[in-house]
Amino acid sequence: MKRLLVLSLALAALGGPSVASAATSRCTPTNADIVGQYRATEDSLRELAWAEMAAFFAAADLGEEPTPREDPATTTAGLRFAEALLELPLPRRAAVKELAANATVDRLGDAKLRRERAFRGLSPTALSALLDADDPTIRANAWWWLATSPRADCVAAKIERARFAIALGDLSRVVENGDDLVFRRVADYALAAFLRRLADAPADTEALLRSIVDAAEGTPEPPRLRAVAAALLVRRGDAPIEAWLEADDPALRLAVALAALDHDRERWQARLIEVAAADADDLVSQGIVDAILDRSGKRSAPAALRTTSHPRLAEAVLRWGGEGDPRAPLPVAQAEPVNPARRGYAGLLAAR
Prior knowledge:
Elements: H1 2-13, H2 19-22, H3 33-44, H4 46-59, H5 81-85, H6 90-102, E1 105-106, H7 111-119, H8 124-131, H9 136-148, H10 153-157, H11 161-166, E2 173-177, E3 181-185, H12 186-197, H13 202-215, H14 224-236, H15 241-245, H16 250-263, H17 265-278, H18 282-296, H19 303-306, H20 311-320, H21 346-350
Parallel strand pairs: 1-2
Antiparallel strand pairs: 2-3
């Protein structure tokens, strides 16, 4: 991860106002569309997130619950949480303590309102203190508020780019409570906030995403940050898709495949069925098949899936339809033709 931290410092040196200089600049709303693209890309990797949580429970002691965890090698924490609270106005401290006590990045119910109560109107100095706090859940919530709140534009503009960039290396683990309970990293939320910060500077956004993809190769798990950055480049329409479909990182292969399907389904669907047949990672193969069938529906499923005799694809189709054993490995990947054969599987889709 040292390479990513070096990248972060280099990106920070490219420019962006300091806290002092930005304090005098005009505050204007930013385009938050990029955050929606980010979230759609993250959601496309939910199978990987589920697998990580399943691995946790398989190794956990009886009754053990998923909890946040500081990563000593990459954490951006520089202040004790109690010290960071001293930078906040007294009326806000209780709301921030409530977020910390919840120990999750909550996306359900009134979670958005609770974040607003905690962070709205804080000075750049106060918010920066929370971004330095030795509580990964607080750091993640603060970054997510910067990424999503319409009231965050002014304070985000007054925080140095270096702070956003360095946080991309923070692999401290947090628990996100949304449609599912999953692990995320502080870096995931920092990336969303940085993309929001750069929303009106497309060239800088492009440079950031490309630098993440290049610099994160070979860094420690989890590799989702690189996968998300690559997929966002695909969605923007300028990326080496074929090369990335052959990458060593299964998260990147899956993210790029699903982004290509969304970006130009007519061009990439047949190629991605071939990838699903040949990819050695079950999550990649199943993820591609699921995405194609989810988009096409049972009546319009491509023939290469609907009537395939390819063992790996046929089993993936079964599982999409709710049959088969999702815990068992898929049949071994085979880089063989996946054109429809005489033995069909059309009936597998009828019960969907």
